[in-house]
UniProtKB/TrEMBL annotation:
This is NAD(P)-binding protein. InterPro entries: NAD(P)-bd_dom_sf, Sc_DH/Rdtase_CS, SDR_fam. It comes from Tilletiaria anomala (strain ATCC 24038 / CBS 436.72 / UBC 951). Belongs to the short-chain dehydrogenases/reductases (SDR) family. It comes from the Eukaryota. PANTHER family: BENZIL REDUCTASE, CHAIN DEHYDROGENASE, PUTATIVE (AFU_ORTHOLOGUE AFUA_4G08710)-RELATED. The lineage of its organism: Eukaryota, Fungi, Dikarya, Basidiomycota, Ustilaginomycotina. Gene3D superfamilies: NAD(P)-binding Rossmann-like Domain (3.40.50.720). Pfam families: adh_short_C2. The keyword NADP applies. Keywords: NADP, Oxidoreductase.
Amino acid sequence: MIRNALASTLRAAAPHTTLRAGSASFSALPRSVAASFASQRAFHVWQHKDNTVKHVPAEALPTGQYNPGIAPPVETLGVDAVLSGNLSSAKSPTPAIFTEFSLAGKTAVITGGNGGLGLEIALGYVEAGATVYALDIHDEPSAEFKAVARHCRDLLGQELHYISMDVTNQEDTWKTMEYISKESGRLDVLVAGAGVLQTHDALEYPKEEWDKLFAVNSTGVFLSAQGAAREMIKSPHIKGSIILIASMSGSVVNHSHRWAAYNSSKSAVLQMARNLAAEWGELGIRVNSLSPGHIRTKMTAKYLDANPELLNKWSNSNPLGRIGRSAEIRGVSIWLASQASSFCTGSDIIVSGGHQIW
Ligand SMILES: NC(=O)c1ccc[n+]([C@@H]2O[C@H](COP(=O)([O-])OP(=O)(O)OC[C@H]3O[C@@H](n4cnc5c(N)ncnc54)[C@H](O)[C@@H]3O)[C@@H](O)[C@H]2O)c1
């Protein structure tokens, strides 16, 4: 998707453009790099209007919201560290187990980051110390995104970036990933979360609708992973982690819903994660899928609100007797992005309240 605003932003910028008002924490791009992105005009970088950035020292943050430090090398962890006499982690004020989950120093990209699960993951990653870029189709971020970005800036002292782009366009997706990697100096983590849901009887399913859904849910996920991996391999020291958001619906069929295309597109994502894990493992990139169960977001709210009986039905479809909350995806997303999951690749992690066991 062509976005003219980036070009005009860049043209208006000073010799070393900042691209973003008030983004004091980021190094500026040289004019030549910025100009080359401007001429490509593949995406649009949203800018904060509010320039007041309050930098809060890490020690002033509420406990549990900040995992300081780059993740330590494996030799300094666990039993090996104890046996080799390296007890510094045990004496450290931050227990080593939490530093393993730290995303400090890493750059993460989240597609579909304007709301729902993507925005939840984005906030979790900022809290874990990452530089985070949320990508979404909308030109302007949602009110909830803006509120969360303001929170990140004012309370956590970190920017939550927003870039408008379309994951179905290969060229734009590659350019966006390249831009992020150049601007932040690295790209460590991708969460491919952009997705759409529609309902049609299989006997009548219009081909255009089927194609549209697959373009986002399957092809778009692949293009995002491809674009991110192409940047990750430019820095051999980076051990990239790619998380493809699938669904429990890739493995089970939702009773009495006409979701043939959606469920098939999510099955494709499960197999895609295994294939990419196989191809990219030797490049140091891990690829896993994450399969949520029923969670109320904009995507599911339209079904829940139109059919009041659905809430009970979905809730009673799992042993916990309720649907999930977006925030319940944070922990597993941080684990998959961090060194704490360093031996996990090609796996599907199901977070569904146990829906699929019945
Ligand atoms: N909510 C659930 O119950 C649930 C369950 C299982 C899986 N999922 C999956 O989780 C992911 C996030 O969904 P959600 O529930 O947060 O819904 P959501 O609608 O809030 O988020 C999806 C986001 O993707 C964006 N998007 C759509 N097309 C795009 C495109 N072409 N380019 C860029 N962005 C695009 C949308 O604008 C939206 O912000 C989806 O892949 C969804 O299939 C959701």
